[in-house]
Structure formats: C-alpha cells, structure tokens
From TrEMBL:
Source superkingdom: Bacteria
The protein's name in its UniProt record: Pur operon repressor
Keyword Disulfide bond among record annotations: no
Keyword Transcription regulation: yes
Length: 274
C-alpha cells in the first residue's frame, strides 16, 4: 500500500492505465494500492478521464457493479491522425528514398518506435470497437507496426513466416501470388500460433496489389479464423482498382507515383482520411 499525495497518485494512476490499454482494472485495486476510499479514487479517475478526452489520448470507460472497474480505450483524434499522416507523406516524398527499380526505401521509418507507435494508435482507434483476438503480419518489415498496434490493443501478435521454422513445430503452408510479376511465393504459420476460430486484425507496412495480404486471408481459412480488419501503412496508388485483390482495408498513406528519372515521389493521404 502506498500513501501518496493526490497529485502523485494521479500521475501514477495515469501511467498505470496508459501501460495497460483495453484492460479492466477494478476500483478496489486502486483503493487497496493507495489506501484510499473508492469515492476518492472515482474522483481521481474523473479527472484523468477529462484529461484523456481533451488531449485525444483515449476514452476511459467505467463499468459499474461488483465486477466493474475502469478501462482505457486508446482513441487518437482525427486531427492528431491527420497531422501524423501528413508528416508521413512528406517524409516518404524525399527524393533519396528512390531505389533502383523504382522501389521506395521505408526501413528507417519502420525502425522509428515513435513513428510506429503513432501508426499503431491510429489502427487501434480504427479497430477499437471490433472483436479481435490477435494482430497478424508477415515477416519482416511489418513486424514493428504489428507490435505497436498489438500493444495499443493489448493483443498478442502472430507472425506469418515466408520460410517454415523447425523450432515452431508443425505448420500450415500455402502458396500465394505477389508482386508486379505475379510470382509464386510460400507462407506458413505454426499450428500452435493461432487458435482456431480466432478473429484476426491483419496489418502490413506496404500493399501493392494486395497479394501478400490476400495470402494471409487464405491462410486464415485453414485455421477457421476470420478477418476482423486490415490496416496498411502505405498503399500503392499506381495499381488499377480492377487489379487489386483486396478492397476492404484502411490505409494511412497512398503512394501515387515514383519517377526514377526525375527523382520525384508523390504521396497523398490514405483512404482513412476520405
């Protein structure tokens, strides 16, 4: 039991809730932890709730009854999300990102925890009200984004492998078509990694025609699992709608053109922003 001044208690309670999104915390836990009356704890939570809602951190839900408590649902405001996406687009338009073959270098952005955390908060906001059991991505570049999203939703992350690892036991493998050349690839998922009938949120760093994500969708069928949603950091706008294999998804940025000769890259906001 800690005896803290109210100001210190508010700070510690706020940190506790931020570190445990989507987790129901009984009021008795805080009352016992600080040796305070439930009425005092309720007043503290009202203050925290007001601050969270004003600065766009999220919604602090209160559940009444013996099994009740409080739960933080991260919700990044549309204004904050828009500012992040505009900054992302500007960074993606840097000419030195163009690689031979017209590819776009994104690894530095994917390696920035702050950037991935913000993207994860947006996806957690978009899919906060859906019933989801796990977050899924395919190795390797989408991993930071998947873990950032999983942390905000307080959900485990499942990684689909391009090559089966012996250390993961028996696995289900499927072939899928990906890339502009429509080449055939293989992906696999350990049978132990995903319980049957799971509800899965798929996230990925980049989507062109959607072949890789469609491969994950097909793989989920083998586990009797369902797709609860798809989130993509950057989508390619150079693909004709009729050629796209996936249509139900949320993107934060749209790569519309890459000109290797003029070193020009054009990126606009993704479909999340209308």
């Amino acid at each position: 039991m800690k005896k803290l001044k109210r100001s210190a208690r508010l700070v510690e309670m706020t940190q506790f809730l931020l570190a445990r999104p989507h987790t129901l915390v009984p009021l008795t836990y805080f009352a016992d932890r600080y040796g305070a009356a439930k009425s005092s704890i309720s007043e503290d939570l009202s203050i925290i709730k007001e601050v969270f809602e004003e600065d766009g951190t999220g919604e602090l839900q209160t559940l009444a009854g013996a099994a009740g408590g409080v739960k933080l649902i991260p919700r990044l405001s549309k204004e904050h999300a828009l500012a992040f996406a505009q900054s992302l687009c500007k960074q993606l338009e840097q000419p030195d990102r163009i690689l031979p073959g017209g590819y776009l270098y994104m690894s530095d952005l994917l390696g920035q925890p702050a950037t991935m955390n913000e993207a994860g908060k947006i996806f957690a906001t978009v899919f906060a009200d859906r019933a989801i059991d796990v977050v899924m991505t395919v190795e390797t570049k989408g991993i930071p984004l998947a873990y950032a999203t999983g942390a905000q939703l307080n959900l485990p992350v499942v990684l689909v492998r391009r090559d089966h690892q012996v250390t993961e036991g028996s696995a289900v493998s499927i072939n899928y078509v990906s890339g502009s050349q429509k080449s055939l690839h293989t992906m696999s998922l350990s049978r132990r990694a995903l319980p049957e009938k799971s509800r899965v949120l798929i996230v990925d760093d980049f989507m062109k025609a959607g072949g890789t994500i469609q491969g994950m969708v097909d793989l989920l069928i083998e586990f009797n699992a369902t797709v609860a949603g798809v989130g993509v950091l950057v989508e390619s706008g150079e693909i004709d709608t009729n050629e796209r294999l996936l249509h139900d998804y949320v993107s934060l940025a749209n790569l519309t053109a890459v000109d290797s000769k003029s070193k020009q890259i054009k990126v606009k906001l993704g479909n999340y922003f209308g």
